[in-house]
Amino acid sequence: xxxxRIERFIERQMTEKQIAAVSVALVDNQxxxxxxxxxxxxxxxxxxxxxxxxxxxxSVSKLFTDIGIMxxxxxxxxxxxxxxxxxxxxxxxxxxxxxxxxxxQLMAHHSGxxxxxxxxxYFDTTAPSLAHTVGSLNRTALVYEPETRFKYSNAAIATxxxxxxxxxxxxxxxxxxxxxxxxxxxxxxxxxxDSAIVARLARAYMWTYDGRVFVAPxxxxxxxPAGSMYSTVADLxxxxxxxFAGGALPDGALLERATLEDMxxxxxxxxxxxxxxxxxxxxxxxxxxxTVGHGGAIYGFATELVLAPDEKLGAVVVVTKxxxxxxxxxxxxxxxxxMLALRRGETDFVLPDATELPAGLARRAAGSYGSGAGAIxxxxxxxRLFLLPGRGGMRVELRAAEQGLVVDDPLAWGARLDxxxxxxxxxxxxxxxVELDRPARPPxxxxxxxxxxxxDHNTLYILERDGWLHALIEWFFLYPLEQIAADTFAxxxxxLYHGERVVFERDPSGRAVNAIAAGVQFERxxxxxxxxxxxxxxxxxxxxxxxxxxxxxxxxxxxxxxxxPELIEVVQLDSSVxxxxx
Length: 582
Description:
By secondary structure, the protein is of the alpha+beta class. The protein is 22% helix and 26% strand.
């Protein structure tokens, strides 16, 4: 794949997805064959993005935390299969099962721990200590029996990092810097950044379904081992070269080659299964080639690091748009596919892409299709078309492919949809267009629950939709909630928070003042009328009669000397102002 081809692809993605900065690095064994930035690390000050721009790399941090643990395993200081209580005697989440929690389970996300700790979680701006963060897990109970189900857990890796801290008698960030980052020469990487690193940190951006864009917050996470690392794509490229060398360093080794292979081995999978969660690394395949790596998502930054260890090829991409891992992943995996194709002597590799919809198609396609769990809604915004699954998920944009439509969005890519005259085809399902009845009023007890909770930087929305209470959490994830008690609802058996609950706390009037979602307390926000209703106008005449009169009306003629009007179209004041005329 020619370099110019991927450069043009990146530039198109930045324009289409409104991404300020992208940095990318490609590695062939011990050589970084290409590394550069696109766009602006700080648009306000015209600071260009480069391969040495500093980014927050989110959960890519977990790889380095787990490498720190494996160094101690090699030395015999830790046993992956010993109870964690051997190293943290006070660690005691409620566990009704006979099987105890181990480091292996934690590192492979099979411990049954909750996703977020009650303190120091993804939403917590107070930057508590790692000890306080892990200690708060004693207020939780296991979601699943250990080793029975994959449950991605930031709390688990926070615990892993605290084991490292306690075992070494050294603060976690300092130990990782000394034992993991510095030996590899990753001088622009840190879990606690110094002023020089902070000065080069890119400005990142949050966005919402309703069109808002704001600068991402920069507070530190209490669960630092799970997601608080700062780095550059140049440093992460050097990291991949160390992995390709089997962990060898100029003066010794980061890890033994056999240890890396252990980390790249899927855990708790069926015999013969070659993909799954390894020790830190996600193990997958691209075009039949084994790949390992990890993604990262933290306020305003999205990172994808992927490498083919057997071919010693790798790619890393960071973008400055919240949750835009689909874009980072398409660039990283596409570049890796291109390098693999070049190895085979193929030079015509093309990254699949999509284009704008034909004029008028979005309006024609908008509507509801299907029924039950497989139903979808297609929503029109100007000439753009968005898909929202009827039972929740993410709202994603549809664009034109060579045949039919394809999901092409910062949040997702690749799912196909074909339009028929009065139906759509999604996968093997044909969903007829349906006309929905006016929805019934939600159950009276829910009226005190509906509203907004949490913080400006991350708001939890509780709403009713199609007879189900829903939670819109982390801006993009819409989940139907199943009521299991008066004020207790279960998240669905999929998504970020499967196995966990939302518990509401009401005041004496019956109005919820807190939503405890997956163990995290979200306080109700003051928005709109206190009763949660909306303002309505009761017409004094029939609607059709009022409409006819309004259409026939003309403004009165004014005579005299007047100043020139100073009115302006509100949409010209700011690009974020949109009109919704119904």
